[in-house]
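pinning this so it doesn't scroll away 📌
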Amino acid sequence: MMNSLQDWPEPIVRVQSLSESGLSMIPDRYVKPLSDRPSSNRPENGDANIPIIDLTGLTDDETELSRSTMDRISSACRDWGFFQVVNHGVSPGLMDQARETWRSFFHLPMEIKQAYANSPKTYEGYGSRLGIEKGAILDWSDYYYLHYLPLTLKDYNKWPGSPDYCREVIDEYGKELVKLGGRIMKFLSINLGLDESHLQNAFGGENIGACVRVNFYPKCPQPDLTLGLSSHSDPGGLTILLPDPEVPGLQVRKDDRWITVKPARHAFIVNIGDQIQVLSNANYKSVEHRVIVNSGVERLSLAFFYNPKSDIPIKPIRELVSADKPALYPPMTFDEYRLFIRLNGPKGKSQVESLKSPRCH
């Protein structure tokens, strides 16, 4: 099976090159079926937005957050699977610098970027597709994917060498987001009625995995026919997204409607991934989301994935399993789960749902 992951099944086309070529119609490869197009699901819920939670009072020594803040995090996890955090302790200057550094990378000449082209074997580097199904309908986006943790996978040679300061910025940003991820894990643990370090320990304690995916969505002449990123739930633990402050694009599925997230200034968008759905025995659920594109302006976002150590079997936490609510999922390592996703590409929520017992052997 791994042999099929050595290379892409067909030549890679950079979406940015298509966009910049001035075409007036998108190639058929990017046209989504009618049911998946953004226009077919209107009208949208115009005023709705995911909860915005102020983490003031969150410091390194973890002063107890007010009960009401904890309750808001709890209901956001149960009702939405998504929330925004402000006053989270990461400097606004670093957030802006990280985003603009990556924007500079995507505006470098193509031959410089091509030196970092990725393969399905690791996905690390500069890419333009997910999944390796030949003839698949593609998303209107390019991306850059890199490993931050564990240190054994962190390879500066696979990180962009330009702009000059790029690697330092990525490093500093990663360090701050690992800290923020650890804090959010504490809140989730406490809200599940567990010891504050329980989820973190289930992830491998200090030995977590973390990676960054920078998404670049070029202008699109026919945004109603395609998506920047197809509907999916995140396979990992926790996602901390730095959105484009000027250009909305992320849509979250809520009660069978697509809500376009309105980013708050210098906020991160946090969402629950499939691994936390499994650990929490579906008390918290990962939620489908997708990205729409537009014809007038490009969009760039940074997704930071805070994941379990890749070889620990992830299964429902014993304290969250009872006679009334038996374990819903068999044990599976994140490595096994990730391979499953890579072969299939983004497929809504079908991946995590297909794991439910009685497939337990």
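📌 and the second one:
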Amino acid sequence: MTTVAGVEARGGQHCETTALGVLLRHQGLDLSEPMLFGLGSGLSFVYWDGKNMGFPFLGGRVRPFELTRNLAANLGLELRVQETTSARKAWQNVVTDIEAGRPVGLQLDSHHLDYFSPKVHFGGHVVALYGYDEHNALLVDTEQQGGAVSTGLAALAAARAARGPMTARHRSFTLTAEQPLPDVRERIVPAVTACAHAFLDPPIANLGHRGIEKAGKLVRTWLRRTGTPQRDLPRAALLMEQAGTGGALFRNLYRDFLAECGRLLDSGHLRTGHRLYAEAATMWSQAAALIAQAGTTGDERCLARAGALFHALARVERGAMQALSRLGSDAPGTLAP
């Protein structure tokens, strides 16, 4: 077995931040999962429904791998990304990094991994690889999927070669942090304000606070949107709460990020944002419960209540992001001791 020494195989709530944590801890930079998510400007919202989709999709974060790119840029990390259409070359890229003593991030389709449950196709899944032998690869995935896990090399190759929505061409990546390590306190303001501006001024109505408002109108029709509401509505609620989101469609992670920032920076705007995202996180979980209840009971009143919550959430999150967008206007000298 060839392994990278000193890897802490700790699973988190979300796949991309879990993998980033593995790579950065190996560089000596140990950040909490909410801090990784927030410094990567990871929070967003998308309501997506298309002709070829069986049911609408609610997303609470930026596109796969955008968080990684944002985090690397914000912290001044060297991000090395390799992609190829050749499975042989893709595996050699990984072997070269592992033998050089570097854990590697991989983007792949989770459906093909031996250990992964439930068996759903998601081409934006991210894991960290830190060892292999002639039969298996050693990975770090989310806590929900087992944390330190292994999968067969054939399964891993199929997962990396998969094509479809959100897939990449055998993408692998490494992160390198220069010394001295970055001061996280100095990177909070640009990460928060970039996230806020993107949320407040989305290019299309499906995104940001406009997307939440749109979802509030359309969620009321979901019982008529599908022929199998008993399956599709509870599944949508499950994805909001348990599919690597950390609960409340990633709002729990962002709430905790803002709380951690509040211990590092003295800012009224930051406190307002944290208070409103704590409120929003509770409301998202309530909305998910109502959607699941509508699916199991067929009661449209549950969806009407969920729609009302979405409209309220659009206002709450818009207010939170407006406050956070002004974070850079705080008086200088606000770093906590």
